[in-house]
Amino acid sequence: MDLKNSPGRCGSVDSATEDGDVTMTLGRDDFIKMFGGKMNPTSAFMSGRLKVKGNIGLAMKLENLLKNLQAKL
After folding, report:
1. pLDDT per residue over 3-62, tens digit each?
2. Residue range(s) defining the domain that contains residue 72
3. Contact, 39 vs 33, CB < 8 A?
């Protein structure tokens, strides 16, 4: 997910050619649960369902982003 460059994008990247500040990896079903408000990102990380590589501070902002997203839906 690229939220740094407008308009943003979501999808797979080739890690050999693209580097991000933080890389988060989780399964498709867990992604749907997380963005549907059914799974907390912190809980997903603590249970090993969400893997984080890179800037953990940026990864922690995901929870606020999802809260704001849910408020608008």
Report:
1. 777 887 777 766 655 677 888 889 999 989 988 889 998 899 999 999 998 888 888 888
2. 1-73
3. yes
pTM of the model: 0.69
CA distance 3 to 34: 17
- Closest to 3 in 3D by CA, of 34, 29, 24, 27: 24
Give the whole-angstrom CA distance, residue 73 versus residue 58: 23
**In this structure, how many other beta carbons lie within 10 angstroms of the beta carbon of residue 63?**
15
- Determine the residue type at 37: G
One-letter amino acid for residue 36 of the chain: G
- Residue 26: which of 37, 16, 12, 15 has the closest Cα? 12
Overall number of domains in the chain: 1
Looking at the DSSP assignment, which residues form a beta bridge with residue 9? 2
